[in-house]
Structure formats: C-alpha cells, structure tokens
Write a structure and sequence with these properties.
Strands 1-2 form a two-stranded antiparallel sheet. The chain has one domain (2-89). A hairpin with a 4-residue loop joins strand 1 and strand 2. Helix content is 60%, strand content 10%. The chain has 2 helices and 2 strands, in the order E-E-H-H. The chain is mainly alpha-helical. The chain has helices at residues 30-70, 73-89, and strands at 2-6, 11-15. The chain crosses the membrane at residues 58-84. It comes from Drosophila persimilis (Fruit fly).
Length: 96
C-alpha cells in the first residue's frame, strides 16, 4: 500500500511497512522537506535578484540626475560611448 504527500513542487511517496501500519496521511518525509526547502531557496533567490535589480535602477536614476546637474554633456558622452562601443565588439570572434 502506498500514499503520496504533496509538498511545494513534487510528490513524495513513502511505503507503509508492517512496522508503521498507522502513519498519518499528512506526515512528510525528509525528501519532501528537502524539496520544500529547495523551492523556498529558489523563491528567496528570485526575490533577492528582483530587489537588487530595482535598487540598481533607482541608483542609476539618481546618478543620471546627478550627472545632468553636474554637466549635461557627461551623460551624453557616456551613453553614446556605450551605444557605439557595441559596434567595436561585434567583429570579435565568438568563443565557441
């Protein structure tokens, strides 16, 4: 006889043995707990990456405003350098 415990991502199955005939249906195994912890770690990593991305966007906007206040030509030169710099890199051979 077999039953399934549904955790965060996967279904964990456990054999009911003769030693444990009355295992409650809601109990989890170590594998199921590990799957749930892996899922939570991946969610936390995604949340941290979104947080750092939004913080970087905020910091970039603040620095851009500071550069505009300092001198208008500085951000124009920086962004035109980034725009035309990609054309200098394009003829490089690929590393594959």
């Amino acid at each position: 006889m077999e039953y399934a415990v549904v955790c965060a991502k996967k279904t964990c199955k456990k054999q009911i043995t003769q030693d444990q005939p009355n295992v409650p249906a809601g109990s989890t195994t170590a594998k199921c707990t590990q799957n749930a912890l892996d899922f939570l770690a991946s969610v936390m990593a995604a949340a941290m990456s979104m947080t750092f991305g939004r913080g970087g966007a905020l910091l970039g906007n603040l620095i851009f405003g500071l550069l505009i206040d300092l001198n208008c030509i500085i951000p124009i030169i920086i962004f035109s350098g980034m725009l035309f710099g990609k054309y200098l890199i394009m003829p490089l051979p690929s590393l594959n």
